[in-house]
Structure formats: C-alpha cells, structure tokens
Amino acid sequence: TEPRRIALMPGDGIGPEVMAAAAEVLAALDRQTPLGLTWDWLDWPSTDWHRQHDEMMPADALTQVQAYDTLLMGALGDPGPLTDAERYCLPDSVSLAPLLQFRKGLDLWACERPARLLPGAPQYLADPRAAEVDMLVIRENSEGEYVNQGGRLHRGSADEVATQLEVFTRRATERLIRHAFARARERLAARGQGSRDFHCANKGRAAAQVCLITKRNAQPYWGDLYTEVFAEVAAEFPEIGVHHELVDAACMKFVQCPWTFDVVVASNLHGDILTDLAAVLSGGLGLAPSCNINPDSRAMPALFEPTHGSAPDIAGQGLANPAAMLLTTALMLDWVGCAQAAERLRQAVAKDLVTTAGQQRTCRDVTAGVIAALH
Ligand code: NAD
Ligand code: IPM
Ligand code: MN
Q1: Distance 272 CA to ligand 2 centre (A)
Q2: GO: which molecular function terms (predicted)?
C-alpha cells in the first residue's frame, strides 16, 4: 500500500518549536518500527509566509492540502509584544483565518479534546479525586457562534452597534450529538461496566455518560434545538447515562468535581472555553491534545493541532512544553491506522512525566526524555 502522507505546518510562535519535537519523535518511532508514513514541511499558513507573500497561505491552499491524508499544525497567531515597532504584526482576524478555513473547508465538524491527568503532571486542584479526571470534550466545529455570517460593526455614529449572527442547524447538531454518544459507547466498551459511576438524569447511575452543555436559560432557540436532538439521540443509546449543565454551572463543576464528567458535548464557543479549562485539569495547556475530524469521512485530510495557541509570551525561549503536540501526534497516529505507534508514544510521554515530575524543563529536555522513553 502507498505510504500515508502527512503535512507538517509549524505555524507561528511556539508552533515551530513544538513541531520540531513532533518531527523528531516521528522519526524516532519510524526508526524503531517503520510507520508507513511520509511527511512534508509546509511554510504556510504562517505569519512568516504573510511577511513574504502578503497572505497567510497560497490561494489554492485548501486544494493543495487535499494531497495529504492528514495535517499536523503547530499553532497560529502572532500578535507579538505590541510595544515592538520593528515587529511584523498581524491581527488575529488575519493570522487565524486559515485555521477556521481548514475546519470549515475540509468539513472537519467535530473537535475532540480529551482531558486526563497523567501521573506526574501538575495537579492544580487540591482534591485527590482530581487525579481521576478522564473526560472527552467534543466541540461543534463548523457553525454556531463561529459562523461569521451576516455580522457587522456599524460604525460612524455615537451609538455604534455590533451584530454577530449565530447559526445552529439540526443537521450539524444531530451528527455532533450522535458522535458524542458513539464515543461514550466506545469508552464504555474499553473500560468495562462498573469501573466508573456517573449520576444521570435518565437512570440514576450509569458507567458512561454524555453531558450536554447549553445556555438554554438565556439562549433558548439553539438551547431548545440541542435539548430536543439530545433527547432523541439518547434514546438510541439506552446504556449511556445523560446529563445537562448550563455552561456557567459546568465551569464551576469542572473545577469543583471534574471527575464527575465523562463525554461532554458543547457548541463551538462553549467547547472552546471549556477546553482551555479542561486543559488545566490535565496539567495545563502544555499537555492538552486536540483534533479536528470528520468522523463520517476520510475524503478530506483531518487536522491535528494542540489546544494551545502560539504562546507569544514564551515563544523563542525554548520553554514550550511539546507534550501537548506529542499527545496530539499520538491522536493523529491513531487516525492514520498506526495504533501501536500511538500507544508507544503515549506511554513514552507518560513515562517521561512520571520520571521528571516537578522539574522545570525545556522543550528540548522533554523531547529528549520522550525519545529516550520510547521502546
Ligand atoms: P495560548 O494558548 O497561546 O497561551 C495561553 C498561556 O498558556 C500562555 O501563558 C502560554 O505561555 C501558555 N502555553 C500555551 N501553550 C503552552 C505550551 N505548549 N507550553 C507551555 N505553556 C504554554 O493562548 P493566548 O495567549 O490567548 O493566544 C496567543 C495567540 O495564539 C493568539 O493569537 C491566539 O489567537 C492564538 N491561538 C491560536 C490557536 C491555534 O492556532 N489553534 C489556539 C489558541 C490561541
Ligand atoms: C482553539 C483556538 C481557536 C478557536 C482560535 C485561535 C480561533 O482558540 O483552537 O481553541 O477559538 O477555535
Ligand atoms: Mn481555544
């Protein structure tokens, strides 16, 4: 069979630093057991590319990336220190546009962000049960608050008005929620009945749960649509418990009792916010993987990128933790059918964490430690 092709897109800020780590680790994995993968480096999308070409990526970028089975991206966004006049500065609206264009243009409608606290990772919550955090947040990735249609900032009067349209369709809601239940079913099969125990609205307690997030008390139109579709789809998955939280209360419970969550399904914006919070539950943004996929189709490449951004506050200093990118690389390896390599990589990241817990480490230290822990 043909080797599968990966495009490596380092991007901005700490993106190239953590991408270098991912490439080194991929090469090390490949030396141990050939992966059947090839990878190319792309200079775009990036602020550097913009400096040279006055655009974040070539006009036909979306077509070009379709030559690949999967895309691995560092991060985008380079606002830089706003005091540095020499610096090539782009507003986020320009530098991040490619990310949203890929998600939408490649029909990657589900964003999955698992949050587990690996032993040795910083545990920010004092309650010992926080060590048991093991949740999967699934974020709507194609519409909702990010649809960016029809909005406007009406300028030119003392009473300026900004309007921002949000669009939620039954089609996108239903596929998202069905996917969340399917993942809950897989997680239940993997962990076995009785190993975890969640409070559920429909059945008292269950060994797997999907929690729906809305703000239906203040945003009733899409709140009602999500609630209705959730109930319909839940009926197809009688073994999975269900639960609902308003997003504000969910934020509270992510901090107060995060071990009571299993699969969490949320809109685009709510999912974005909740997953930075969930990242802290797993030890910080430096440990939080993420992927953008179309669970129904491989017709387009999927896009793998950590939850974190370009971290301009630490960029260029070698301080970025590449573990989020390496765990993201493991998700990508699973996606392209290299499940054994993915598992070896996850175990190496875990082993490196345990053996170096509490130490202050550079990007290079972590990369070398993970490679040494590969077997
Ligand atoms: P950020 O995620 O870049 O950083 C938030 C904080 O977490 C910073 O203090 C940073 O130093 C720290 N951090 C992030 N990743 C880390 C890592 N791997 N190791 C150690 N510390 C890490 O978020 P921000 O500061 O709000 O945004 C910076 C830029 O990134 C903005 O332009 C934003 O729009 C963009 N952004 C891009 C993406 C993406 O490309 N997927 C995601 C989020 C933010
Ligand atoms: C993320 C990021 C993006 C988002 C930004 C950079 C547009 O925060 O991937 O979480 O909001 O989706
Ligand atoms: Mn985000």
Answers
A1: 6
A2: magnesium ion binding; NAD binding; oxidoreductase activity, acting on the CH-OH group of donors, NAD or NADP as acceptor
